[in-house]
Design brief:
Structural class: mainly alpha
Largest sheet: none
Shape: rod-shaped
Number of domains: 1
Distance between the termini: 76 Å
Order of helices and strands: HHH
Length: 125
């Protein structure tokens, strides 16, 4: 009788241990799947942010290129320089693309300060 009770207790303890181990394995598998989904979502989010930042930089470069072409056309035509507003506007229009080009080069440069790159990308997003 005592030996039967001892066997029954051993079987119950073994069953409990087995159940606990299965539950822990299930929890680890669920956690691994959840981590995998989070990593995929994070990678997708990072890729979207990078694409948006690159699109913003390319649009900025395209805008600069378009302004340069228009400035070249305006210099090709002989504009009357007697109007102060026209000359000051042309001076400003000529200086703006140079400053923005320098800013874009700093942003895209690997030698540029990382803080400037980070600020530029955050502004674009």
């Amino acid at each position: 009788m005592v030996s039967d009770l001892a066997v029954d207790l051993a079987v119950l303890a073994g069953g409990k241990t087995q159940r606990r181990l299965e539950h822990e394995a299930y929890g680890r598998a669920r956690q691994a799947q959840q981590d995998k989904r989070k990593q995929a979502a994070r990678s997708s989010h990072i890729e979207e942010r990078r694409a948006k930042a690159l699109d913003a930089i390319l649009m900025d470069m395209e805008s600069l290129h378009r302004r340069r072409r228009l400035l070249d056309l305006s210099h090709a035509e002989e504009l009357e320089a007697s109007d102060l507003r026209v000359t000051s506007f042309l001076a400003w229009a000529a200086a703006t693309p140079k400053a923005r080009t320098a800013d874009c080069r700093t942003t895209l440069s690997l030698d540029g300060p990382p803080a400037a790159v980070t600020r530029r990308i955050r502004r674009q997003l």
